[in-house]
Design goal:
With 466 residues, the protein is an alpha/beta fold. It has 14 helices and 22 strands. The strands form 5 sheets. Strands 1, 2, 3, 4, 5, 6 and 17 form a 7-stranded mixed sheet that branches. The protein has a 5-stranded parallel sheet with strand order 8-15-9-10-11. The longest helix is centred in the N-terminal third of the chain and has 25 residues. It is globular.
């Protein structure tokens, strides 16, 4: 029962680390405490939320946009139970695919809670009360994160809920109050807004998606308001109380006035925190930061030389694709290779409609760093493809170095920009200039032409179709 590498946690970071290590000739075991593989992302995060986003988007289009395309149907209706069942089927298929990959790559799977006995021995505690100890030359911690809350909020998982419960509600809320205007709150708020719920987003900061470029935040808020979502920014939540099937949220606005919101459900979406409970890090001597993250160096190595940590449990953006890249980096490093990861080029994406996506620096970050830059912006409304599809909201903005023309950041709002952002990431990985991107022939008519036009606007200030 000795392995070259033991991975604790089977989310995107963990299972990808295990696969890559196996590909490189290592004997690998992976430990997962739940009955299905895939972690938060596949079970109660990325995949199920996108399934509901797609289903609700189809319904919203049928109600609001089919007629303008000349499609006449009886008044559309939806079966929420069937939507949730479809979501569950998508999850089951996807997690089953991970089990297949484990078998294909000869990775031993242990079901149970993994905890350190010492730096090289892991105890696997099973649901039936039994346990076994396995040994690993190197250990990779990939235990992810769980939803955060505020100290005064009691999550009852029925009316006062986290994202986990929001993905399996028994009904569409009449009025969903969302605490937190970040990615999770906006995506799940959009799902229920499209299905007819009144949705109010209460955000502490003065803008939604506060980590993204200010223009992206402004555009998204404008579009969501048009879709019927209400926003209360610069509001500090002070109390959340349940009274039967009603939830009352109290907050103070920027003028210190108390505002009260009342709804039948309250989604607490104030971020996530590293999950290290039950790991027994102290037995191995692994250090944890003040923020609860596992402390790692540039190789994702902890203070104990044979123990590594990746994904949400360490510093950086809590993104599945970031965890995947870190999993690959650690596996290759342990195999004697020299991998690298460019954290500046990890894209951030909001899967609402329109979508939002970004890579590189925001204007605010460039200003703070006193970097001279130029900006080029192009509206989706000016594109032939956008006019043809009716998806005219949004823009592409390219930020480039004022002196060298190197692309420093790209920010987008619009149809399919979750996929489109990778054009910018590839260009930036090869340190392309705005002129380089502007001179590449883009297919017509496509949404990607907005990238070319924005790049030209940044390069010489003269987009062709604006």
């Amino acid at each position: 029962m000795k392995y070259d590498i033991i991975v604790i946690g089977s989310g995107p970071g963990g299972y990808i680390a295990a696969i890559r290590a196996s590909q490189l000739g290592k004997k690998v075991a992976i430990i997962e405490k739940y009955t299905t593989l895939g972690g938060t992302c596949l079970n109660v995060g990325c995949i199920p939320s996108k399934a509901l986003l797609d289903s609700s988007h189809h319904y919203y289009d049928a109600v609001h946009h089919f007629e303008e395309h000349g499609i006449s149907i009886q008044k559309p209706s939806f079966d929420f139970t069937k939507m949730v069942e479809r979501k569950a089927n998508v999850v089951e298929t996807t997690t089953g695919g991970i089990k297949y990959l484990m078998d294909k790559n000869d990775i031993t799977v242990f079901e149970g809670l993994g905890s350190f006995e010492d730096a090289t021995h892991i105890k696997v505690s099973k649901k039936d009360g039994s346990s076994e100890i396995i040994e690993g030359t190197n250990i990779i911690i990939a235990t992810g994160s769980k939803p955060s809350t505020l100290p005064f909020i009691s999550i009852d998982k029925e009316r006062i809920i986290t994202s986990t419960e929001a993905l399996k509600l028994p009904e569409v809320p009449k009025h969903l109050i969302v605490i937190g205007g970040g990615v999770i709150g906006l995506e799940l708020g959009s799902v229920y807004s499209r299905l007819g719920a009144e949705v109010t987003v209460v955000e502490y900061m003065d803008k939604i998606v506060p980590g993204m470029d200010a223009d992206v935040s402004k555009e998204l808020q404008k579009v969501f308001k048009k879709q019927g979502i209400t926003f209360a920014t610069s509001h500090k939540v002070t109390s959340v109380k349940r009274d039967g099937n009603n939830v009352v949220v109290k907050a103070t606005d920027k003028k210190d006035r108390e505002i009260e919101f009342s709804g039948d459900y309250c989604l607490v979406a104030v971020g996530r925190k590293p999950y290290t409970e039950g790991l027994g890090l102290e037995k191995a001597g692994v250090k944890v930061t003040e923020r609860g993250q596992i402390d790692v160096n540039d190789h994702l190595q902890t203070n104990i030389k044979n123990i590594y940590a990746i994904g949400d449990v360490v510093k950086g953006a809590m993104l599945a694709h970031k965890a995947e890249e870190e999993g690959v980096v650690v596996a290759e490093y342990l195999a004697g290779e020299k991998p690298h990861i460019n954290y500046n080029l990890i894209p951030g994406i909001v899967y609402t409609w329109p979508e939002a996506a970004a890579v590189g620096k925001t204007e605010e970050e460039l200003k703070e760093a006193k970097i001279e830059y130029k900006a080029g912006k192009f509206s989706m409304r000016a594109l032939g493809r956008s006019k043809a599809s009716g998806d005219t909201d949004g823009f592409v903005k390219v930020l480039a170095d004022k002196n060298t023309d190197e692309i420093l950041g790209v920010h987008m709002v619009g149809a399919r920009v979750a996929d489109l952002i990778m054009e910018a990431a590839v260009a930036m990985e090869f340190r392309a200039s705005a002129e380089d991107l502007a001179r590449i022939c883009h297919g017509h008519p496509t949404y990607s032409e907005a990238v070319k036009e924005a790049a030209k606007a940044a390069w010489d200030g003269k987009p062709l179709n604006a």
